[in-house]
């Protein structure tokens, strides 16, 4: 796609710059590689319970959001800072790092968890990288191709135990040793800043306009060797549910949670539904429908969106867009009563 000309600044939310939603302020808390400790889970649960709507909302970038907050987020900032969740205020909105969620627990060629720590330190050590758009996405893939397929701007993907390939907007490039992965990613991010113009993403640059998307492996779920993957409905966990995990976890870009070890006792927190939805009414004034209420009556892999922004839509989900009197299902109008009576595509 051509480099777009945008009249508005990047308004990607964080903790210091929240989004003003109908149900209150929305704060996005970055979790490098999706990793969060048991102690930090307790802090997030307390913030949701005391300051927000009582739940923590998982995002498609392995982060979490808190909704229904007061516009004055001073207490939230203090709590999150004390928990180590805001280590670099100047770089807060650009700490967007995906990492293979099962890395170091089961499968994969390389344990990328140490690389996430190194990447975060390297990005935050360079003042100019605070100028990256809030949508710019780094990824470290342990070789299974899971996060490399999530359309990161810069990605290192392992090809064996000693090296990987550098991907820019999905296009495979040079071979890079494990020890040089962080330096390579940071270097490409700095180069993007030099040439970006008004672009927010690497794929908006002319040289990457024709790069086809990668095939994404099926997201993991259920009890695996070495880990248990929980899939809460719409990626929402109450404060009480979050506290019940009682261990360090990984939030995935598929709105699920990886818990180390075999934990079938936690599967009650999972839903078998493959339907996703934006927050819809009444939380968002732009939405034309209570899409989550409608989506709960539907089966199949589909994403219900309340408006054309299609917030949080997975790339491989059928597009169900709210319009007056019904929904556009992959572009074809279906009255709401007909769609919900049918219950599937």
Run of helices and strands: EEEHEEHEHEEEEHEEEHEEEHEEEEH
Radius of gyration: 20 Å
Shape: globular
Helix residue percentage: 10-25%
Report the CATH superfamily of the largest domain. Sulfite Reductase Hemoprotein,Domain 2
Instruction: Tell me the number of strands.
Output: 20
CATH class of the largest domain: Alpha Beta
Helix/strand/pairing category: alpha+beta
Describe this structure in words.
It contains seven helices and 20 strands. It has 345 residues and is an alpha+beta fold. The protein has three domains: 1-86 and 221-271, Alpha-Beta Complex (Sulfite Reductase Hemoprotein, domain 2); 88-217, Sulfite Reductase Hemoprotein, domain 1 (2-Layer Sandwich), CATH 3.30.413.10; 276-342, no CATH class. A hairpin with a 2-residue loop joins strand 18 and strand 19 (326-329). Helix 1 (38-51) packs antiparallel against helix 2 (74-82) and helix 3 crosses helix 4 (181-195).
């Amino acid at each position: 796609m051509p480099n777009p000309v945008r009249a508005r600044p990047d308004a990607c939310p964080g903790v210091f710059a929240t989004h003003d939603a109908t149900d209150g302020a929305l704060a996005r808390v970055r979790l490098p590689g999706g990793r969060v400790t048991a102690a930090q889970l307790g802090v997030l649960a307390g913030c949701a319970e005391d300051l927000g709507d009582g739940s923590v909302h998982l995002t498609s970038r392995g982060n979490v959001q808190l909704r229904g907050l007061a516009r004055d987020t001073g207490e939230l900032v203090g709590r999150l800072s004390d928990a180590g969740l805001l280590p670099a205020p100047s770089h807060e909105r650009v700490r967007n790092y995906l990492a293979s969620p099962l890395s170091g627990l089961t499968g994969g060629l390389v344990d990328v968890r140490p690389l996430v720590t190194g990447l975060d330190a390297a990005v935050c050590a360079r003042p100019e990288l605070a100028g990256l758009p809030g949508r710019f996405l780094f990824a470290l893939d342990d070789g299974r191709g899971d996060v490399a397929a999530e359309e990161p701007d810069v990605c290192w993907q392992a090809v064996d135990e000693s090296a990987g390939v550098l991907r820019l907007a999905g296009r495979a490039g040079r071979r890079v040793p494990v020890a040089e992965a962080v330096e390579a990613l940071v270097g490409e991010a700095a180069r993007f800043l030099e040439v970006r113009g008004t672009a927010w993403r690497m794929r908006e640059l002319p040289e990457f306009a024709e790069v086809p998307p990668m095939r994404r492996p099926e997201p993991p779920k259920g009890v695996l060797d070495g880990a248990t993957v929980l899939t809460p409905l719409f990626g929402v966990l109450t404060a009480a549910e979050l506290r019940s995990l009682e261990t360090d976890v990984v939030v995935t870009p598929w709105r699920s949670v990886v818990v180390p070890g075999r934990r079938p006792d936690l599967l009650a927190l999972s839903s078998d539904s493959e339907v996703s939805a934006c927050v819809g009414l009444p939380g968002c004034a732009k939405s034309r429908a209570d899409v989550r209420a409608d989506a709960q009556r539907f089966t199949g892999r589909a994403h219900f969106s309340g408006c054309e922004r299609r917030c949080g839509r997975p790339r491989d989900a059928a597009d169900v867009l709210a319009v007056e009197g019904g929904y556009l299902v992959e572009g074809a109008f279906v009255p709401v009563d007909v769609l919900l009576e049918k219950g599937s595509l």
